[in-house]
Design a protein that fits this description.
This protein has helices at about 5-20, 30-35, 70-75, 85, 150-155, 275-280; strands spanning about 105-110, 115-120, 130-135, 145-150, 165, 170, 175-180, 185-190, 195-200, 210, 225-230, 235-240, 245, 260, 290-295, 300-310, 310-320, 325-330, 340-345, 350-355, 365-375, 380. It contains six helices and 22 strands. The termini are far apart. The chain is mainly β. Helix content is about 10%, strand content about 30%.
């Protein structure tokens, strides 16, 4: 056999071997057992009736327990200061805007005058979800359920595969975000435990239908992607910890060139302001997941969720240039990590919220917190929280 042919055969063989070793092999019985653990949607929700902590999903208690915390969860967390961010005066006494089970809450103001809300939904997003659910409102108070605007089974391509997470089958969407860019609606989503898709509305409407711009494979590996359109119409993409930024092609069909590495000037080197994984990396980053990118008052804001003094908060730095360098890293809304920032019809700025840690006043329900900017541009909680 000629050397060139031998190399080709070896490459194909290695590729097949690698795929065979890494591709999860689960039986239908195994995947069915996951699908039977609970609903893959959160549904329309209810009017605000919450008095308890809310939901709590995760491997320590994966089943849906209703609007009150389970006895098991309370036992495991009895030594944690539940709701202490409010008691300490770090957060206003906010309430959920809707009785709805949702993580990674993202709210935007669309081009049609509606506010749209998306996020991780379903009884247990760590195991399986049906698709992307969407909610809309005219006033941020009364919400309407639009249902599933994209489903894994009907609309998905590569997303249909079952992945292996902790030796268990998983097929779940993490942190889907709806964005209004270039006069249309785009959804960015992550498939657990990693792999990002970008979906573009074929009608220009928020309810879709949506088409994957790269159906054959993930757009890029990682989680928690977000988009941002600048004043000149250019659209940018970042994900995970926000340490790299891509510019999108004008037609949103893919990336326009290579990613730009982002520099964080004067990193925050206090260990208590970072998750353990960030401490091990030298504390030179914004955070470890839940990337955020937006612009306000002429400044660019880039950040990610981190474990800031035990709170799951988005930590953000600022720059006069989209590619940095970024400086003045700071905790924004305490316990408000994994969400995003938006401006309402009156020009007021808000941070969406869902509650993930023991210091939050509730967990996995949607809320909003009004913010303001100080003279240096840092994000603070606004005194008046009225709409």
């Amino acid at each position: 056999m000629k050397l060139k042919s031998l190399i080709v055969v070896m490459f194909i063989g290695f590729t097949f071997y690698t795929h065979a070793q890494t591709a999860p092999q689960f039986t239908k019985a195994q995947t069915d057992s996951v699908l039977n653990t609970g609903s893959g949607i959160s549904g329309p929700g209810h009017n605000r009736i919450s008095k308890g902590l809310g939901w709590r999903t995760g491997y320590e208690g994966v089943m849906y327990d209703g609007p009150e915390p389970s006895p098991e969860w309370l036992t495991m967390n009895k030594n944690k200061a539940t709701g202490s961010a409010v008691k300490k005066g770090l957060l206003p006494d906010i309430k959920p805007i809707w009785e709805l089970h949702i993580r990674d809450t993202k709210i935007i103001l669309g081009g049609d005058g509606y506010y749209y809300m998306s996020g991780s939904t379903g009884d247990n997003i760590w195991s399986h979800t049906d698709g992307v659910e969407l909610y809309r409102s005219k006033n941020l108070e009364s919400w309407e359920y639009l249902g599933l605007v994209w489903t894994i089974e009907k609309d998905g391509t590569w997303e249909k595969r079952w992945a292996n997470m902790k030796d268990k089958p998983v097929r779940a969407i993490w942190a889907p975000e709806l964005h209004y860019v270039k006069g249309t609606y785009v959804i960015v989503l992550s498939m657990a435990p990693g792999g990002i898709s970008i979906l573009k509305s074929t009608t220009g409407k928020a309810e879709g239908p949506y088409q994957n711009i790269m159906p054959e494979k993930p757009m890029i590996n990682g989680i928690d992607a977000t988009l941002f359109q600048d004043d000149d119409g250019k659209v940018y993409f970042t994900w995970s910890g926000g340490n790299r930024i891509y510019k999108m092609k004008d037609d949103l069909s893919g990336f326009d060139g290579k990613a730009t590495e982002i520099t964080l000037a004067e990193p925050d080197t206090i260990p208590e302001h970072h998750a353990p994984k960030c401490v091990k990396r030298g504390m030179k980053d914004f955070g470890h997941e839940g990337a955020v990118l937006f612009k306000a008052n002429g400044k660019y804001y880039l950040g990610a969720a981190d474990d800031y003094e035990g709170r799951y908060s988005t930590c953000i730095a600022m720059s006069d240039n989209i590619y940095g360098p970024y400086k003045m890293r700071h905790e924004t809304v305490p316990c408000g990590g994994g969400t995003g920032f938006f401006k309402d019809k009156k020009g007021q700025w808000w941070c969406s919220f869902f509650g993930n840690d023991a210091q939050a006043p509730f967990r996995e329900k949607p809320a909003i917190v009004k913010i303001k900017f100080d003279k240096d541009g840092k994000i603070l909680i606004a005194e008046n929280q009225k709409l």
